[in-house]
Amino acid sequence: MKKDKMIEGRIVKDREAIKNEKKQKKKKRGFNAEIMRITIIFFVMFLSLGVFLTVFNVFRAEDVINNPYNKRQETFSEKVIRGNIYASDNSVLAYTQLGEDGSETRVYPYGSLFAHVVGYDTNGKLGLELNYNFNLLTSHDNLFTRILNDFTGEKDLGDNIYTTLDVGLQETAYDAFGNREGGVVAIDPITGRVLAMVSKPDFDPNTVAYDWEDLVLEDEETGKESGVLVNRVTQGLYTPGSTFKFFTLFEYIRENPDYANYYYECIGHIGEGEEELSCFDGTVHGGQNLMDSFANSCNSSFANIGLGLNLKNYNDLLNKLYFNKQYPGNFAHNDSAFSLAEDASNFEIMQTSIGQGKTLVSPMHMALIMSAFSNGGDLMTPYLVDYTTNVSGDVVKEYKPTKYATLFSESEIAILKDYLRAVVEYGTATKLQSDIYTAYGKTGTAETTTDKGDNLWFTGYATNGEKTLVVCAVTEDVTDSYNYSLDVTKALFDYYFQ
User: Fold this and answer.
1) Contact at 8 Å (CB) between 333 and 384?
2) How many CB atoms lie within 10 A of CB 344?
3) 98 Cβ partners below 8 Å, 6+ apart?
4) Same fold for the pair 72-164 and 168-387+399-497
């Protein structure tokens, strides 16, 4: 009996041992599974990091390093001689001259002609010298030469950039402006290539260091900087004047299917007292249909149109057309601004509808709107560089035309095109009539808050059926009411199509 109890006790202990062993194995399996899960998580994390670093280095690293604000670029010049900048016809716009003592001097053969768009590389950077600093200080010379230079302590030769800029068109714009201040830009809307960009007042990039104090000197009356270094085309924000009537017209047509029946009797002004708006020089236009109102730039009629618009839809349209947001392009620019609350007063609505009020816009922005319009509604990303090469002339990188957005439908273009043409046929831009091209566009006279004069605008395009050129020009502080921007535009159209 005692032996049976001993056997029974051993059996119980064996069962408990087996049970405990199973528990230990189960616990170990759970522990191993947990380790496996953690291992897999870490593996996935490291794999993701590896993929990210690979993609970054292959596709994104250059973009990040090429950021103008990346301080790392400042060290590149210690090992690389800055590359050259060329126009579209291979004319040299900027190069580095080496002195006998090893000094490097940046030279700009055309002086002030390309001042703002090419920029400078002294006392900071501006223009292409800034935005393509990475490219100019990166060398893709053959590997053997670079290894040898590294061994001997010689500098590598940086890559060269070939721009879209047309020397003849640039000279035409520059000369047409004369001593007046303002800005003008010319774009091929089919590709987005910027062909000319002039901003005045200008400066000589060869003497920036010597002239620096004068270039940034504050105006004794206003306390503001001289503004000479500001690129009026991309950074200048102006009241658009009557060029803005294009947007008011666009919204009116969208809201009113019977737009062709519009009629207004202009008596030279609208409103009363301090809230009265007048047509230019108090002109009494008389009976005006919608096209006449636009072609003759009748303020009274367009103020009347504005009062009937749905202000929410009006705001939505302007936002779609890149007001209050960034538009495309690899250059420093300021965003255009549009503000009209739904509870705005009648006077504010009238002012805004004719391009006065709080609205501000840059010439480049207006040019991009016309670029999209003249290109079947498609806005191409504007660009200033066609390609970069190494010192041997081998292409390193090409910049091809890319569509950015569609801003107008074919039906909208078909309607609005006649209005832009009427401005040239019998309206305020008859100066642009020609036998070798057909021009479209809108003029504008914008009142300023200073007593220096008005800002005179033109924005539009011309075509001969084979090619198209978009031009937007603004001339500042005009006191005699003559639209010098039309002269600049005509000079560009004549040159381009001849």
Assistant:
1) no
2) 17
3) 81, 104
4) no
Amino acid at residue number 27 = K
* Alpha-carbon span 473 to 332, nearest angstrom: 18
Tell me the β-bridge partners of 395: 389
- If we measure between CA atoms, which residue out of 371, 389, 398 comes closest to residue 460? 371
A 10 A CB-CB count for 2 gives 6
28 confidence band (pLDDT: 50, 70, 90): low
- Domain map (residue ranges) of the chain: 1-65, 72-164, 168-387+399-497
Residue, of 11 and 152, whose pLDDT is higher:
152
- The token pair at 206 is 């060869």
Beta strands in 145-181 (DSSP E): 156-157, 160-163
Length of the chain: 498
Count CA atoms within 13 Å of residue 96 on its CB side. Answer: 22
Query: Into which CATH architecture does domain 72-164 fall?
Result: Alpha-Beta Complex (3.90)
Residue from 80, 89, 78, 84 nearest 108 by CA: 84
CA–CA distance, 24 with 408 (Å, rounded to integer): 73
Question: What CA dihedral angle connects 163, 165, 171 and 177, to 10 degrees?
Answer: -120
pLDDT-derived band of residue 31, with 50, 70 and 90 as boundaries?
A: low
Handedness of CA 89, 373, 294, 241 (dihedral sign): negative
Kindly report the number of other CB atoms within 10 A of residue 490's CB atom: 20
In the predicted structure, residue 357 carries a pLDDT above the cut 80: yes
* CA 332 to chain centroid: 7
Other Cβ atoms within 10 Å of 191 Cβ, number:
19
What would the mean pLDDT of 251-276 be, rounded to a whole number? 95
Q: Token pair of 319, please?
A: 């936002």
Entry pTM? 0.85
* Token reading at 2: 């005692």
- Rounded CA-CA distance 397/412 in Å is 37
The whole-angstrom separation of Cα 275 and Cα 303 is: 12
Q: Residue 39 to residues 27, 45, 52, 192, 366: CA-CA distances in angstroms?
A: 18, 10, 20, 51, 57
Give the bridge partners for 193, in sequence order: 188, 383
CB 142 within 8 A of CB 149: no
Instruction: Tell me which architecture the domain covering 168-387+399-497 has in CATH.
Output: 3-Layer(aba) Sandwich (3.40)
Q: How far apart are CA 197 and CA 128, in angstroms?
A: 12
Please list the residues that pair with 441 across neighbouring strands. Answer: 460
